[in-house]
Amino acid sequence: MASDESSVNADVTVVSPANESYGDRVVDADETLLSWLALEEPDYLCAAIFRNGGMEIELEAEVPDAETVSIWAADVGLWHSNVKVYVSENGRRWQKIASLKVKSTENQRYDIYGSFGDVRYIKVERSGTPLSFLMLDAVRAKGGD
Ligand SMILES: [Ca+2]
Question: Does the pTM of the predicted model rise above 0.90?
Fold first, then answer.
């Protein structure tokens, strides 16, 4: 039996800090259902954010000199969702990086480009009519290549 044991040659790479990182923990969520579905890589399972709700998410790792922040989102209902996106290194001081309209009823990636510094937290705030709501599948911060 022991001879059937196969060895695994794994390349161990210590990735610290990360070049890209997805959500790992919900710090805060307002008017949101199934908030944990916005964590990790996009999988078409979404948190639902209503009315003037929002979510604050801690990423798995800090991304130094982040240049792209992405959210995977869709709008369900009769209108669209206005969404503000913020980033933070420490979860206390926030920098607003985008204000966008999510109109797509299909889950879609929205990329925001800039020089955002070190990013460990992403906050998404929704505003708009209660006749629709925001589906949030995932968030990600990514450094340069
Ligand atoms: Ca998801």
Answer: no
